Amino acid sequence: MAKMAKFCELVEDYSDVADFIVVYISEAHADDGQWAFSDNEYAIKQHSSLKDRIHAAEILQSSGVLCPIYVDNIENEAQMAYAALPERLYVIQDDVIQLKGGIGPIDYRIDILEKYLQKLVKQE
């Protein structure tokens, strides 16, 4: 959730130059999955239906996420199209990918997103 807190800071700081969204994909650390953490703040099992995924997204929204949350379909089409599991940052402008962040958790670099947003502010 520390990464989400930093992401929310960017949403607050740069919402005048960018629209932010989160796309909720399959659960990377589901309680019933291979990569489960014993200290997960929320008990979320791998989604077996769209209803499960929507419920998980609602939990995330209630935690204070400051932008819209969209939900990938249960076939994980967005996740596969953007190679997004477990997490990834993108900047899309005029239907063109301008920034494709590394695959998390190791290469999830929110500082690179912040630098990109800073450049946008300077261009205005």
State the major sheet.
2 strands, parallel
Task: Give a count of the beta strands, DSSP E runs of length 2 or more.
Answer: 4
Written as H for each helix and E for each strand, in order along the chain, the element string is: HEHEHEEH
Low-confidence stretches: none
Q: What share of the residues does DSSP label as strand, in percent?
A: 5-15%
**Individual helix count:** 4
Helical residues, percent? 25-40%
User: How do the strands of the widest beta sheet line up side by side?
Assistant: 1-2
Description:
This protein is an alpha+beta fold and 124 residues long. The protein has helices at residues 2-14, 50-62, 77-81, 110-123, and strands at 22-24, 69-71, 90-93, 96-100. The strands form two sheets. It has a two-stranded parallel sheet with strand order 1-2. Strands 3-4 form a two-stranded antiparallel ribbon. β3 and β4 (96-100) form a beta hairpin. The longest helix has 14 residues, at 110-123. It is globular.
